[in-house]
Amino acid sequence: MEKSQHISFNMLIAGVGGQGTLLASKILGNYAQLIGKDCKMSEVHGMAQRGGSVITHVRVADKVHSPLFNEKQADIILAFEELEALRWAGHVKEDGIIIVNKQNIYPMPCAVGMAEYPEDIYEQLAKYNAKIHKIDAIGIANKLGETRTVNIAMLGFCAAILNFNKEIFIDAIKKSVAASTVEINLKAFEHGYALAAEGNS
Questions:
Q1: Nearest to 73 by CA among 90, 51, 53, 49
Q2: Which of the two ends of the chain, N or C, has the fewest CB atoms closer than 10 A to its terminal CB?
């Protein structure tokens, strides 16, 4: 099997409970293993119950000594929700990448009227001098009839713009998800991948 020789990155995956940040991390870890790279992932940070903020750190290189990295050290932020993108944007490197799912999930303070959901998220994100990709991953998931595939659609887009080996990444998905969900997850991946290939973001 062909090995990728130049893959090395720090990625922060941000979402809310129930969006599959851990599964996304697992898939990336399996991809790293399949291409002969080392990968370490952090524990979940924040409140893992549905609706709470959740992040994971994923580090891939020839040799990784620690799963964690500091602010301004993420090559990529993969955000499954817009406010979570803003919440963790301080971790992105100068000229890094922020990939954002165009979805709003109101945190409890906003839901009960104690705070307002920001209306200027993308204006604030622009201050970080990162390349921002906005994709409708929730639209893909809704089209497929399975909202839990947002994470896989996001990974598809990410895999395309980072020039990951597509076939090996598909193998990583198959290795990571339940057999009964392989088909729907691969459809989500292909839709996300196609968005990047078509230059839509």
A1: 90
A2: N
pLDDT digit string, tens, across residues 54-89: 899 999 999 998 888 888 999 999 999 999 999 999
User: How many structural domains comprise the chain?
Assistant: 1
Q: What's the pLDDT tens digit per position in 102-116?
A: 988 866 666 667 777
Give the 3-state secondary structure of 43-68. CCEECCCECCEEEEEEEEECCCCCCC
Residue 74 burial by CB count (10 A; 0-12/13-18/19+): exposed, middle or buried?
Answer: buried
Q: What is the CATH number of the domain that holds 192?
A: 3.40.920.10
Distance CA 158, CA 160 (A): 5
Position 62, amino acid: D
Dist CA 183 CA 171 (whole Å)? 12
